[in-house]
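quick one, 144 residues, struct below
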Amino acid sequence: MTYYSLPGHSQNVTTHCPPCQTVYSPDNDLQRYCPSCKRWWHTQCLQNITSCWSPAPLPGNRSSLLEYLVASPIVRGQNGKDESEIHYWEIVGSGVYLTMLQTTQDEAPMSEEWVERLDPSFAEEIHRQQEEVHFRCPECLYQV
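---
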């Protein structure tokens, strides 16, 4: 298995999903990152726990929105989207933004400029994905 590191990015980028050994394709796949075992998994290779999950509505105030986003699963892949609908973070993974948001959340005092640094569609897309399905990592059972 090959690992790559992205500059300023804490997640390793694996070229193969552990159970299926399929090479990651940004154009066709949707994957979730497990921060516990530090691996990327195709959503179809994960254990579905939808019945245990009730997503909260997207918060309206900035502080609650930041907390909501930082707690979101790390995802990557375009999942067959049209090229005009693709965002950079969908190819490399939402961890790029989520790491930035975690750093912002840890700042004292917290900067209010973090919203301007986000892709405008980021919060809506993360919320849409949270409404769909949550999973457990097959290796460590962490919720991703």
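Residues 3-136 form one domain.
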